[in-house]
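Data availability (excerpt). The following record was deposited with the supplementary files.
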Amino acid sequence: MIGFNGISKRLGKFELKDISFEIPEGCICGLVGRNGAGKTTILNLILGLLRPDNGELTIDGMNYGEDEKRIREILGCVLVDELFIQQLSPEDNGAHFGSFYTSYDKEAYTKYLERFKIAGKKHFGRLSKGQKLKCQFAFALSTKPKYLILDEPTANFDPEFREDFWKLVKEFINDGTHSVLLATHLTDDLDRMADELIFLDRGVTVYTGDMESFRERYRILSGENYLIKNLDKQYVLGTEEGKYSTKALVINKRSLPQELLSAPPTIEEFMYLYTRGDKNDKKTV
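Predicted structure:
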């Protein structure tokens, strides 16, 4: 399990504030939020590239102060930043970086490169963005990690490979002991595949928990503007007034007006309505 307990981190004018959540074993966890919400800071803390100012980060009961080498052995990552050496081939990059992992499997890495149609001897710097991310994904899998930390990989994958990617991710967690944390803006995939969700806004967690609870806790209401305006403001998290009707994101409760259409929000709808406008002095909801 990956656990954040009251973690804060200041970077210039940005501050991650009192973040607490758990990523259990055997799950796909989506990490979402608009640009500048704190997603990259969360990932960098997990990967040990940053250390918290306050609070405690544990990975399988270990912390970076005492167990950095053991933690790095169980983490695999695919980041938007290009980690591989540009002048080396994918094969040579694998050999170089694989030497830092006791569990690196060269044969598995070669097979993944073949499966992903990556030329193993071509200079890494000459590959497309999508191919580079596939190389990193192949390498991460071949180190046999317990946790995969993925930063926006699917945005650069073609639709055919995205299906293969999700197949591999599902296979990765199937034994119930491995987990995936995926930061992405392609929320349609998370609506289909995620078990857990972390939604950040302006350095604070808005929602952390499982997807079933997310769909139970919130509703999108649609209907005439005057009906939306009459809703109890303490339950309304965001609204959008249209030409013919108005939408509202609300906390679900039993006494919602019957005249309004009600449906669970998608992650994209939740993000859009919650972060819309300058109304965001909200707390965790």
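Summary of structural features: The first strand starts at residue 2 and ends at 11.
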